[in-house]
Amino acid sequence: MLPAGDAAHIHSPMGGQGLNLGLQDAHNLGWKLAARIEGRASDELLDTYHAERHPVAARVLANTRAQAVLLVPDEENLALRDIVEEPLTVPDANKVVAGMISGLDIRYALPGPPHPLLGRYLPGLDLRAGRGLLLSGSERLRAAAAPWSAWVGYEVTGRELGAEAVLVRPDGYVGWTGSDAAPLADTLSRWAGPPAGNR
After folding, report:
1. Domain for residue 125, yes or no?
2. I need a labelling partner for 41 at 20 to 30 A (CA). Which of 47, 68, 122, 194 fits?
3. Domain contains 182
4. How many Cα atoms are found within 13 Å in the side-chain-facing hemisphere of 143?
5. 197: Cβ–Cβ under 8 A, 6 or more apart, which residues?
6. Does pLDDT of 15 surpass 80?
7. How far apart are CA 192 and CA 132, in angstroms?
């Protein structure tokens, strides 16, 4: 069983975080279920759903509990609220809390060399086809990804990404960054199954 949304986590509605959390659960799970149902991926891919989403839900539960405590109008909590409000006037502190409440600061622990984008959501991409996207100007890497062309599209981007290539999963999260074809092929195999012709 793979529960998502309110079936997986129930907490205070503080900040409307449950709706965002449930939608991201569904987006994370949907492409993985599709890959499994189509026979492209193993159950190991489905295991990544719990590994990636459970920590996010646990953190939302913790922060909505904390926010609920701050609303209790007794003397101690009012004093605590005053202390918490002051740091939130600092832009950097405000940004941290806003990222946590919005879910925009989520970073999945994914394998690969450290990179600021790895495991993070990359906004502004057209992923409506339910496919991943390789962002790169490299024909060599495009050729390495070609056997998975049913699963991943290719886009030459003018964005400054800090890597020769960035592989974005169908849920918008960066699954790989780099410049070498072999690790790209390994990542595509892990997320999308064996290349076409080897199934």
Report:
1. no
2. 122
3. yes
4. 4
5. 147
6. no
7. 9
